[in-house]
Design brief:
This protein is α/β, with parallel strands linked by helices. Helix content is about 45%, strand content about 15%. The structure holds uridine-diphosphate-N-acetylglucosamine and uridine-5'-diphosphate.
Length: about 350
Amino acid sequence: MTSILTVIGARPQFIKAAAVSREIAATDGIEEILVHTGQHYDVNMSDIFFEEMGIPEPAHHLEISGGSHGQMTGRMLERIEAVMQSEKPDAVLVYGDTNSTLAGALAAAKLHIPVAHVEAGLRSFNRTMPEEINRVLTDHCSDLLLTPTDTATRNLLDEGLEASRVHQVGDVMYDAALYFGEIAAGKSDMLARSGVSEGDFVLATIHRQENTDDPARLAAIFEGLGRVARDMSVVLPLHPRTKARLVASGLAHLTEALTVVAPMGYLEMVAHEKAAAVIVTDSGGVQKEAFFYGVPCVTLRDETEWVELVDAGWNRLVPPRDPAEVQRVVSGAAGTKGSDIVPYGRGDASVRILDALRTGLR
Ligand code: UD1
Ligand code: UDP
């Protein structure tokens, strides 16, 4: 029996792990030990995903959250190392680019346990982003680099990482979108909480540190969304980080014209994404989901890792400086489509990850 220890902790990792954990559970000869760092801990940022998506109960819950990046990552590193020493897994699986990702990968690499990184090779080329540091370091200490796209694969080869470690498997979020998108479609009351109907609203999510912690950018974003709301409802499932920063910066009044709701479970979120006229976001995952569901997207950032969607016309990048520009681009995006592309594989990334784990970690 091969044992894989998976480290997760933040919302997007629960969604990615949901797809892969299902595949592991269906595969003979492999068992998974789930470790939840505790980075995200509210019921609607964590528990709801385990319940809705059938993710197994974590074997270890470390309850580590908050503090500075160094404090959080350091505390995780110490506790994850102890878990790995007692569980002695054959390999460690990490996802994405959060502090939980880096702590899991680094702890394993120091104990000489092979590390597999799902969503390897993404780059914004902006080293002021905490996620960029986490990605680069995780990739460089991983043994199996499981990439979602051609661009991600190329980025790793450009950094001199051996081609034999790189396996392009496609995007696990596409697997999740196909499987759980169908389940969401079978539920009828998913738009009830926000009171909107198909096609008559803009869906917005904002949480990226470079936006929340810069009052000028935060003000430009929410003044811009306020202007959009003069013409169309703007539904904002509000991330706890953003909620706290809006209050601390004295900008909470800028959300008064928006339909602010608590963070959504995945099925409710998918239903809103599918029904939105436009999606406005600074999330990585939400940019791709907009494309999966054929909805135009506006990304309020200076750059994106998912460049293929901008090139194909599904997404447009707007550095959030001018509220009038935010409004102009969002209005212009409604009703548009990009070109026909297949950048994220065929929805079988989980199967291909399992294949890569079986062959690549021998
Ligand atoms: C983290 C990831 C980011 C990812 C995002 C997904 C890092 C460096 N950042 O950002 O890459 O895109 O998750 O959502 O790992 N909070 C709560 N309840 C929760 C979770 C967070 O109140 O359940 C609040 C706390 O005040 C916390 C703050 O949000 O200090 C920020 O949380 P943190 O996990 O540090 O970063 P995120 O902004 O969520
Ligand atoms: N998501 C969700 N509820 C919300 C907001 C987002 O279920 O209220 C999902 C979203 O559909 C996507 C994932 O969370 O699958 C993206 O995570 P997030 O935006 O927190 O992080 P990022 O992808 O930017 O790292």
